[in-house]
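Progress note, sequence design subtask.
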């Protein structure tokens, strides 16, 4: 069963013992030697495939090239064999924290991998690069890697269930630092004391504001989770050397909750697996069929269908207005409620368009499709009929869709809404969608063959056919992999794809 851990702010004179702290409870989950169940194993394999797919698609994008070059400019640290870098040859390795950095940026760049949404937001697949990098560097086998990844997913998802960061404009990667540190602790078989110190340090150093996802969204959006993963690796290294971290990091009177979140009177119930309970959190997460913010997934599916069934909706001359009635988050973060002029700017960055549901709905409606490159090009965003229709799309918060968004019942939880399109003659077209087609409760839930198909689609332009097959054969044997095989759990680009990146300080 799950145990709810009560978390509140404590005055310093209350002297909260570490055994009562959330960071210690996380460490206890990390050291629990429960077996990874078969369905969890299958889903972890799916997500490793998914991460490699979206990384392949981003290998030539400028932020990924820069991050990869930073990693290549760092030698392997003395304590291990090093870790591979997405796209590079198998023998081109670097220090694990820099591999976590480069691979984390590649995974996150296109906003195209898995998601979990509850009290806060997350992309739990961001745990994979740092945990895998440490596994390669330290010579861990597939079974150890599997256990580490199960912990990383579990801790991040449990934190996201209970503690809202975005409400206080703190970026969601503050839940990623602790989860990656815990996952690395499980991977290496560290004791609770060491993991506790690493979790505290990882949280302390990964709290930042959400401006990275606001206004003119910069390339840091992809780097932020990679930075958290890198710091998690460094936090574990520091803790393994016997160094301590701020404590109590969550509950202290000058801690994260008191000053960055709900304040000195705050209280949370954080659900964590009981001793001996399997770590199954990953099964509550879901991946993306489309390269866009997760709240856009269902809207893309609805828009594609509406545009195909009613082609007249694609012509702005026929439309007075399009109103998306949706959740608080969709309205205020990626909708017109954000009051960001950039969300209607045809010259905006890809990162900004990715967080504009008026733009995304318009293009999916007109094209009857969504493409991770073509749907974001300046030519596509600047098309006159698209700009005209785009400016007729607004969002509106609907309390019922907000309630369903926050529902803890997985059969009721929803990320879509209802669209009302008013035509020029005064007639209306209305429709609604609760979850994306690829969601476990959607019209076409993703299964192993879908993850493989996504990987092939995104990898074929940059990987040779035999490299695609090599990776797929290897990853689907993940629990059985030797340490040497884990070191080959990466993707190698065809000659000419990987080019030198820009020169910096290193």
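Output:
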């Amino acid at each position: 069963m799950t145990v709810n851990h009560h978390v509140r702010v404590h005055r310093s004179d209350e002297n909260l013992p570490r055994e009562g702290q959330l960071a210690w409870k996380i460490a206890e989950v990390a050291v629990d030697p429960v077996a990874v169940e078969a369905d969890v194993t299958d889903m972890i394999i799916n997500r490793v495939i998914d991460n490699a797919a979206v990384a392949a698609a981003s290998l030539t994008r400028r932020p990924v090239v820069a991050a990869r070059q930073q990693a290549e400019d760092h030698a392997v640290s003395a304590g291990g064999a090093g870790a591979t870098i997405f796209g590079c040859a198998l023998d081109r390795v670097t220090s694990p924290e820099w591999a976590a950095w480069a691979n984390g940026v590649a995974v996150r760049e296109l906003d195209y991998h898995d998601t979990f949404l509850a009290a806060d937001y997350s992309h739990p697949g961001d745990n994979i690069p740092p945990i895998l990098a440490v596994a390669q560097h330290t010579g861990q086998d597939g079974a150890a890697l599997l256990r580490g990844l199960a912990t990383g997913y579990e801790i991040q998802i449990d934190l996201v269930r209970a503690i809202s960061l975005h409400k206080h404009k703190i970026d969601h990667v503050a839940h990623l630092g602790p989860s990656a540190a815990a996952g690395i602790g499980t991977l290496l078989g560290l004791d609770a004391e060491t993991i506790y110190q690493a979790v505290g340090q990882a949280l302390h150093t990964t709290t930042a504001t959400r401006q990275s996802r606001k206004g003119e969204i910069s390339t840091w959006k992809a780097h932020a989770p990679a930075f958290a993963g890198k710091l998690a690796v460094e936090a574990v290294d520091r803790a393994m050397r016997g160094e301590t971290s701020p404590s109590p990091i969550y509950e202290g009177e000058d801690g994260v909750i008191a000053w960055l979140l709900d304040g000195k009177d705050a209280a949370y119930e954080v659900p964590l697996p009981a001793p001996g309970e399997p770590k199954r959190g990953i099964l509550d997460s879901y991946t993306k069929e489309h390269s866009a913010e997760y709240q856009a997934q269902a809207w893309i599916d609805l828009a594609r269908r509406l545009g195909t069934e009613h082609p007249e909706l694609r012509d702005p001359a026929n439309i007075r207005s399009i109103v998306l009635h949706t959740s608080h988050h969709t309205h205020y973060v990626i909708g017109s409620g954000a009051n960001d002029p950039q969300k209607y700017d045809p010259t905006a960055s890809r990162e900004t368009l990715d967080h504009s549901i008026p733009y995304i709905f318009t293009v999916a409606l007109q094209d009857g499709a969504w493409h991770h490159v073509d749907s974001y090009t300046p030519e596509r965003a600047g098309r006159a009929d698209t700009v005209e229709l785009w400016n007729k799309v607004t969002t509106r918060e609907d309390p019922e869709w907000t309630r369903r968004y926050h529902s803890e019942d997985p059969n009721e939880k929803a990320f879509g809404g209802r669209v009302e399109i008013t035509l020029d003659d005064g007639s209306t077209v209305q429709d609604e969608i609760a979850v994306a087609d690829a969601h476990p409760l959607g019209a076409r839930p993703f299964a192993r063959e879908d993850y493989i198909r996504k990987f092939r689609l995104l990898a074929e332009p940059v990987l040779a056919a035999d490299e695609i097959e090599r990776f797929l054969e290897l990853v689907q044997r993940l629990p059985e992999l030797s340490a040497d095989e884990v070191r080959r759990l990466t993707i190698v680009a065809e000659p000419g794809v990987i080019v030198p990146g820009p020169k910096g300080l290193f």
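The CA atoms of residues 105 and 223 lie 5 Å apart. Work on this subtask will continue into the next period as scheduled.
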